[in-house]
């Protein structure tokens, strides 16, 4: 996800400033999701999500996994897979653009204390789309002697209504001494209005490889132009995060920094999914900066997030820890 921002700031008086930005937002997404036959069947049956399909897919796949085996004569399904990726660390195969905005203010209470607040809007994004997606599954049709029959359909995938949530932040900075600066903020992110469901729509293209009717001898196995709509329940909660930080100036050139953030986990254990392992709750940070002169400086920072875990009702456990570092150079235009 990236943003190009057009900011504007107005100084109301020596103590009060207000500002706003209009953001051009772009988003890319890769997805490679494997599910076992049981999970695929549960998705079709509405357990943890819903699937709506057009005629041939509904007859062949829907009947298979929802329990009506007459059309396909299947006795089992081995796996399902949703796949689209461009193999890049910086972009995603399914992409789209949109917009958002921010407004904020800062007020200097006295020479030592400054307070501020900001509001980030919910984005208004296009559906993320790619024409290079595939959906695969393997069935065990009784009509073919019980052999496993893998099928892969190519086509267009749309990730629907995938938005970045609105967020409200209030904070303060306190110059405790000439050398020590203390900062903190409290934010609330409105995940509950953007992560209710993860929705995708797949449309099989007109490739001859999507027509299995001849090879399988089943008329309903021609999937060209057929659609599948998947909705995976998320039901995230809103998230409150407290950030605390400090900077100490050793001398005119060197500064050291440290901080921490503390939050709750917005994802209910009932719906936690390996696709969205956002289970981390706390972060600890440290950094150092060197100022060459009034124009040039460099900074190094590191952040560590201890392991946190969530457990589904089925007993599957998802854990996540993280370590990041960054090195930056900045030049001040005067």
TrEMBL record:
Family under the similarity heading: Belongs to the OmpP1/FadL family.
One protein family per Pfam: Toluene_X
Gene3D superfamilies: Outer membrane protein transport protein (OMPP1/FadL/TodX)
The keyword Ribonucleoprotein belongs to this UniProt entry's keyword annotation: no
Subcellular localization(s) per the UniProt record: Cell outer membrane
GO molecular function annotation: long-chain fatty acid transporting porin activity
Protein's name in the database: Putative aromatic hydrocarbon degradation membrane protein
Main location: membrane
InterPro entries: OMPP1/FadL/TodX
CC annotations in GO: cell outer membrane
Keywords: Cell outer membrane, Membrane, Signal, Transmembrane, Transmembrane beta strand
Membrane topology (UniProt): Multi-pass membrane protein
């Amino acid at each position: 996800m990236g943003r190009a921002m057009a900011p504007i700031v107005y100084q109301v008086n020596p103590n009060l400033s207000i500002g706003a930005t209009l953001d051009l937002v772009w988003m890319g997404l890769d997805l490679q999701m494997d599910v076992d036959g049981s999970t695929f069947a549960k998705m079709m049956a509405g357990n943890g999500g819903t699937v709506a399909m057009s005629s041939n897919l509904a007859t062949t796949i829907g009947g298979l996994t929802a329990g009506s085996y007459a059309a396909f004569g299947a006795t089992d399904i081995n796996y399902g897979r949703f796949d689209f990726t461009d193999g890049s660390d910086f972009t995603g195969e399914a992409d789209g653009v949109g917009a958002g905005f921010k407004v904020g203010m800062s007020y200097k209470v006295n020479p030592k204390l400054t307070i501020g607040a900001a509001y980030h809007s919910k984005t208004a994004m296009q559906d993320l789309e790619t024409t290079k997606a595939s959906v695969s599954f393997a069935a065990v049709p009784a009509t073919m002697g019980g052999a496993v029959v893998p099928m892969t359909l190519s086509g267009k995938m749309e990730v629907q209504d995938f938005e970045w949530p609105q967020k409200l932040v209030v904070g303060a900075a306190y110059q405790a001494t000439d050398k020590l600066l203390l900062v903190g903020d409290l934010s609330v992110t409105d995940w509950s209005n953007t992560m209710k469901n993860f929705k995708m729509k797949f449309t099989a293209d007109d490739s001859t490889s999507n027509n299995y009717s001849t090879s399988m001898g089943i008329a309903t196995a021609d999937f060209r132009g057929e659609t599948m709509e998947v909705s995976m329940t998320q039901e995230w909660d809103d998230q409150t995060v407290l950030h605390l930080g400090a900077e100490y100036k050793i001398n005119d050139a060197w500064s050291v920094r440290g901080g921490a953030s503390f939050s709750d986990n917005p994802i209910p254990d009932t719906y936690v999914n390996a696709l969205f392992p956002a289970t981390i709750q706390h972060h600890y940070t440290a950094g150092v900066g060197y100022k060459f002169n009034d124009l040039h400086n460099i900074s190094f920072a590191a952040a560590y997030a201890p392991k946190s875990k969530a457990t589904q009702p089925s007993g599957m456990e998802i854990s996540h820890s993280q370590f990041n570092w960054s090195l930056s150079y900045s030049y001040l235009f005067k």
